[in-house]
Design brief:
This protein is of the alpha+beta class. Helices cover 49% and strands 8% of the residues. It has a five-stranded antiparallel sheet with strand order 4-3-2-1-5, with no helix packed on it. Helix 4 (72-80) packs antiparallel against helix 5 (86-98), helix 8 packs antiparallel against helix 9 (148-159) and helix 10 (164-178) packs parallel to helix 12. The protein is globular. The structure holds heme C. Residues 245, 247, 249-251, 260-262, 264, 267, 276, 279-280, 283, 287-288, 291, 307, 321-323, 341-344, 347, 359 line the site of heme C.
């Protein structure tokens, strides 16, 4: 319960639209951060020393969110403690970087020499930002010979470097990907970085890769890395709040949502990750039962396509591709024919691969009856429920 309280702390100023416990829509007004800062100030020392790993991470998140820079010396001490968990130390370094702390370079040097891999990796994007010249040799080594997680971290850092040497690294990475030598986990960062790059060497290598995929008819290849390692919490946000077309516009997932598409509350139990990914990237590959799309041509020149919501001799009601109900007069129907899925095939274009991976991680948490199916902090825990005790 302490952790839940801390999470509430970190989302206090701008809380989620959904109440975390019951998952119903309950927008909260933006509140005053002052009491939270006072509470943090009073308990910081004990929270950062005598608590579990996830409480420490929640505290760090709150400190970052509230830009509570007075906590910096304690955060630095936490990051420097070799007996502390590597991920906690990495997160502490992230807070110092976010604050542009005067001791940041010192902290990065210490972190880079530590024996915690998570902490060493967390130095990469910071080093790339502060000192590209120093970062490049380390990034090269990690991109070419590192573990999957190290390659992932180095491609993320390389993406932020507007340097021709960094572009060469990306181009070389794409060639290795074509040769099947880049682990799935790191492919996502590599491809997202390559796609955003404006350097011709990268664009050429990327075009070669795409040509290879096209020749082999491999539409899912660009998303091969999306099945593992996503952040379910970010995925939850995309699912509910994607600016272009939120999935909840047409789908329910243990809460309210549209009805134009199938209820996804039990999708993880019902289907495989590969199926979910394919449904999002290429909705026409398999149409969910009961959601066949019918196209109607009308005598007045009108044309409608969608899934049938209701059909009687007097009226036909369909859900169209915008997730809106349309009513058709059966007397006017000249022709009806099977048509492509009404789930728009645009998500492969509007979602970055890393977003697709986060969305997948969220979808995999969906189980019937789970209030929001939302992972609490990316550690694979499902939504915190109202439990007693602790
Ligand atoms: C405009 C409405 C619409 C939007 C927006 C939409 N979908 Fe769909 N979705 C559908 C329809 C209709 C189907 C059923 C037809 C089909 O299988 O293609 C479907 C099918 C699916 C399926 C397969 C379900 C099953 O039971 O087989 C998944 C998974 C899915 N959508 C996920 C998503 C996700 C994730 C998003 C957001 C990124 C999204 N959809 C956005 C309309 C929509």
């Amino acid at each position: 319960m302490r952790e839940e309280a801390l999470h509430q702390l970190s989302t206090w100023a701008e809380p989620f639209d959904r109440d975390r416990l019951v998952g119903v829509y309950r927008p909260l007004p933006v509140r005053d951060a002052q009491p939270v800062l006072a509470a943090l100030d009073a308990h910081l020392a004990s929270l950062l020393t005598d608590s579990t790993r996830s409480v420490k991470r929640a505290v760090l998140r709150a400190v970052e969110e509230f830009k509570f820079t007075a906590a910096s010396p304690r955060i630095l001490a936490l990051m420097s403690d070799p007996s502390e968990d590597g991920e906690v130390r990495a997160e502490a370094l992230g807070v110092l970087s976010d604050f542009d702390d005067p001791k940041l370079l010192e902290a990065v040097a210490l972190a880079g020499a530590s024996n915690a891999p998570e902490l060493r990796m967390a130095t990469l994007p910071i080093l790339a930002r502060l000192s590209p010249k120093q970062a490049l040799p380390i990034l090269t080594l990690m991109a070419e010979t590192g573990s999957a997680a190290e390659q992932q971290a180095s491609f993320t850092a390389i993406a932020d470097l507007a340097d021709p040497a960094a572009a060469d690294l990306l181009a070389a990475g794409l060639k290795r990907l074509l040769a099947g030598e880049v682990p799935y986990l790191a492919q996502v960062e590599l491809l997202d970085a390559a796609e955003a790059s404006e350097f011709p060497v990268v664009q050429t290598a990327f075009a070669d890769l795409q040509a290879h995929w096209t020749v082999h008819g491999d539409t899912l290849a660009p998303y091969r890395g999306a099945l593992e390692g996503g952040d379910a919490r970010k995925g939850w946000r995309l699912f509910n709040q994607h600016p272009v077309l939120a999935c909840t516009h047409c789908h329910k997932a243990n809460g309210e949502g549209g009805e134009a598409g199938p209820d996804l509350s039990d999708i993880a139990e019902r289907t495989s990750s590969e199926y979910i990914r394919e449904s999002i990237i290429d909705p026409n590959a398999a149409i969910a039962p009961g959601f066949d799309v019918v196209a109607f041509t009308l005598s007045d020149g009108g044309y409608f396509a969608g899934t049938i919501a209701e059909e009687t001799p007097e009226k036909i009601v369909i859900w169209d591709a915008a997730g809106t109900k349309q009513e058709i007069d059966p007397a006017k129907v000249l022709d009806r024919a099977a048509a492509p899925s009404s789930m728009p095939p645009i998500f492969g274009l509007v979602l970055k691969r890393s977003e697709m991976r986060d969305l997948m991680a969220f979808m995999k948490t969906l189980k019937p009856g789970d209030p929001i199916g939302q992972s609490d902090d990316g550690e694979g825990e499902t939504a915190t429920r109202a439990t007693h005790g602790e």
